[in-house]
Design brief:
Two copies of one chain form a homodimer. The first copy, chain A, has two domains: 11-129, Nucleoside Triphosphate Pyrophosphohydrolase (Alpha-Beta Complex), CATH 3.90.79.10; 151-238, Orthogonal Bundle (Arc Repressor Mutant, subunit A). In chain A, the strands form two sheets. In chain A, strands 1, 2, 3, 4, 5, 6 and 7 form a seven-stranded mixed sheet that branches. In chain A, strand 1 and strand 2 (26-32) form a beta hairpin. The first copy, chain A, contains five helices and ten strands. Chain A is of the alpha+beta class. Helices cover 23% and strands 27% of the residues of chain A. Chain A has helices at 55-67, 130-145, 161-172, 178-187, 213-216, and strands at 11-21, 26-32, 42-43, 45-48, 73-80, 91-101, 116-119, 158-160, 191-198, 206-211. The first copy, chain A, binds a DNA duplex (30 and 30 nucleotides) through helix 4.
Chain lengths: 240, 240
DNA sequence: AAAATAATTGTTTAAAATACAATTATTCAG
DNA sequence: CTGAATAATTGTATTTTAAACAATTATTTT
């Protein structure tokens, strides 16, 4: 079959915005770029899309290469296609954002990529348009987490409600009434109470909960409006 | 500066999912493809991204080429990058969705593209993965319109509340109480009441309203939760 | 055994959404 | 003209949900 003539071919890459929660702060995982231009500068983890793989597959591959993790929450965010975004050669980048329990990421001994976690308020300068990507991902996280139960992806399989609350408070930079928070989250029917308590963080101890994977999809919208009026959320309005 | 060696270059296109409302039904604008393969089959309007333009610019160009319209609501939807999605040659497609008042689209005399409006329930088979794109766009429209005042983009500059209501009812395939609907929409502070009434569609006549462009951005979130529990909405969960 | 702490449960108040009824402005048939 | 018909608009009562804040409980430490 004949090819499409006279059209420009270009490079396509994926870049991953990787969020992690360590129980205290929400962090971003970035690497030090290993080649020119911008060698040694901070960058998102990324890679070119190969001949035989889809963008999703490329993102999974790239994420695994850096963290060693599989089965991670990963979602396509936005495609950046400004003709000048990469000074070397025209490259469009399909950005993905990932959510992981940052305790799972143990820095490899070799540390092939010179990766580093940064708290969201202390992110260094990033190459190209990567800062823009991170800002959009941050907004998107707030937006989506106000409507759907995705923040669980940042927690270990067993977690307490106070821990969940502190995650929400970190993401929305605010505080919630603990009584109301607890009832609201339980009323979604998404949590399964465990017999054990966490007694490290308080005297009374807080029960552990697990996410009810069976009801997760079904109740994906029970979370709708979980946070009613998150400050300054508005999915980056890309109307032209 | 040296180029990135040994990476595959590929084609990048944009495809537009164009929704229009004619006062009765929500329709999709598609064209008949003019070249092989799949010549004469129904397709979304699209085009390759040119050397000097961004994806956004390409989408605007493509939309204008078909409809003659500028300043239209246009938003990046999702990037489709399956290696086999186009049988001719590897092409990734950045899909955009557009909202227009379909009365503005007057079929060109020449009708260069053999374009046609189809009601959403009667969309013919489309080439490649275009059907998938349309489905995702439809879900996304429902999702976003439940939270933000974007459906106005489908209406003429002056419209009545009953017309707005019928648009919402068409989009969500349900009915709303007219009294409550009217109050709710007015309480957003986004509408400016006009002096004139539309007396064509009813005896009493319904006042015309215009969108308050000044408050539009500010109140973009006043619409949050406008539709509380839209049936079956859940932004296509693309977690991997 | 009492004090301290933080989780959990309870109660009250306020706000929002929903259902449904009443009123109003207009046209049209007789 | 007059009143029946129609559909928009406004009104009211009920229910649901959220928010504020107080009381109770389980546990550890002194």
């Amino acid at each position: 079959m004949t090819k499409y003539q006279k059209q420009t071919r270009l490079l396509a890459a994926v870049d991953c915005i990787i969020f992690g929660f360590d129980g205290q702060k929400l962090n971003l995982l970035v690497i030090q770029r290993a080649f020119e231009p911008e060698i040694n500068n901070w960058s998102l983890m990324g890679g070119f899309i190969q001949t035989d793989e889809s963008a999703d597959e490329a993102a999974v591959r790239v994420l695994k290469k850096l963290t060693g993790l599989e089965g991670v929450y990963l979602e396509q965010l936005y495609t950046f296609a400004d003709p000048l975004r990469d000074p070397v050669e025209r490259t469009i980048s399909i950005a993905y954002f990932a959510l992981i329990d940052s305790n799972l990421y143990k820095k490899q001994l070799t540390d092939e990529y010179h990766a580093e976690w940064f708290p969201l308020e202390e992110i260094p300068d990033l190459i190209f348009d990567h800062k823009k990507m991170v800002l959009m991902a941050k907004e998107n996280l707030r937006y989506k987490a106000a409507l759907h139960p995705i923040l669980f992806e940042l927690l270990p399989p067993m977690f307490t409600i106070p821990l969940l609350q502190s995650l929400f408070e970190e993401v929305y930079e605010t505080t919630f009434d603990k009584g109301n928070f607890s009832r609201k989250v339980i009323s979604t029917g998404l949590l399964i109470k465990q017999k054990e308590k966490d007694k490290v963080n308080s005297k009374k101890g807080a029960f552990y909960y697990k996410l009810d994977k069976k009801h997760y999809k079904k109740n994906f919208n029970k979370f709708l409006h979980f946070i009613r009026n998150p400050e300054g959320i508005s999915k980056t309005n890309t109307s032209l």
